[in-house]
Design goal:
Chains A, B: It comes from Dacryopinax primogenitus (strain DJM 731) (Brown rot fungus). Chains A, B: InterPro entries: NTF2, NTF2-like_dom_sf, NTF2_dom, Nuclear_transport_factor_2_euk. Chains A, B: It is found in: Cytoplasm; Nucleus. Chains A, B: Keywords: Cytoplasm, Nucleus, Protein transport, Transport. The structure is a homodimer. Chain A is an alpha+beta fold. Chain A has one domain (2-120): Nuclear Transport Factor 2, Chain: A (Roll). Helices cover 24% and strands 48% of the residues of chain A. The first copy, chain A, has helices at residues 2-22, 46-54; strands at residues 30-38, 41-44, 61-72, 79-89, 96-107, 110-120. In chain A, strands 2-1-6-5-4-3 form a six-stranded mixed beta sheet, covered by helices on one side. The relative contact order of chain A is 0.20. Chain A binds chain B through residues 35, 37, 40, 66-67, 69, 71-74, 78, 80, 82, 84, 97, 99, 101, 103, 114-115, 117, 119, 121-123, and chain B through 35, 37, 40, 66-67, 69, 71-74, 78, 80, 82, 84, 97, 99, 101, 103, 114-115, 117, 119, 121-123.
Chain lengths: 123, 123
């Protein structure tokens, strides 16, 4: 049980630190089969996903992870990771609560994001 | 794209209406391999999952679904469903925001819940 949780934790740390420092650099995590649902927009493939993330209307963003849970998603080493947290954009001091789920699939000793769903959780 | 979304919608409607009317009746949706992560508790198998859900310290509960997103999770017809919403317990008027993700796997013309992660999303 310990090992997949470590993978999930490492992924989450890497994902949000990369997102917050330069989200175009997330390209290496996606594939042409990857799916992103972002606030009701549905996008497939690395290029379209990175274009979507890059087009989000803020310059600065900071994610805070409050909870994360990882479960095996299949018998080939896939992982499902659910994250809840908050984000601050630009100079706002009003944190926006979000949840995001990923399915990570293993390939060549690493993992890529096959499924990605992001939703703000309004109060 | 339409069909798997219909399955996701039907599942979500059934899941929360059953939860709110008698949560022990969710047993038919789980298997002995099913995993539930509920607010940091990790549970496996139908019986343990139903015991956990039945032991939650409220008598009445009402879920409100605000958003749901469904994506295919594998090439065998699996689905990943992310739900955000709020729930009211007993006579509280303070909605608790939650997010929950399911992975549904097909079997014999129906679906069961292989993965289930529930988290409250605190303000």
């Amino acid at each position: 049980m310990g090992d997949f949780k470590t993978v999930g934790q490492q992924f989450v740390n890497f994902y949000y630190s990369t997102f917050d420092s330069g989200r175009a650099n997330l390209a290496g995590l996606y594939r042409d089969t990857s799916m992103l649902s972002f606030e009701a927009s549905e996008i497939m493939g690395t290029q379209a996903i990175i274009e979507k993330l890059s087009s989000l209307p803020f310059q600065k963003v900071q994610h805070r992870v409050d909870t994360m849970d990882t479960q095996p998603s299949n018998s080939q080493g896939g992982l499902m990771v659910l994250v809840t947290g908050a984000l601050l954009v630009d100079d706002s001091t009003n944190p926006l609560h979000f949840c995001q789920v990923f399915q990570l699939l293993p390939h060549d000793g690493s993992y890529y994001v096959q499924n990605d769903v992001f939703r703000l959780n309004y109060g």
